[in-house]
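Practice problem: predict the structure.
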Amino acid sequence: MSDEILFADGFDSCIIGILNIDEHTKVVYDKYEMVNCIRAEDPDMTFEDAIEFLEYNVWHAFVGPNTPIYMYTFDGSAEQRRGDIEEYFYDSF
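Answer:
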């Protein structure tokens, strides 16, 4: 197992878990919480601007095999979550 665990600076409150994938430990973050965190620091930033900032500066950065994982979480029933996931997946392509 690799010894180094990487964290996204300033987003500890957004951690939702930890995974071991191919002997690499990865911290898992909630993307929505990260957006809320950014907007709390800069109330004038729009939701879209916060997403753009995070996509460019954090979410798409590869910093080695222990790069954190950033994921959306979904509230509601199992059926609602499945619908949200399918909508997100199909809208992404």
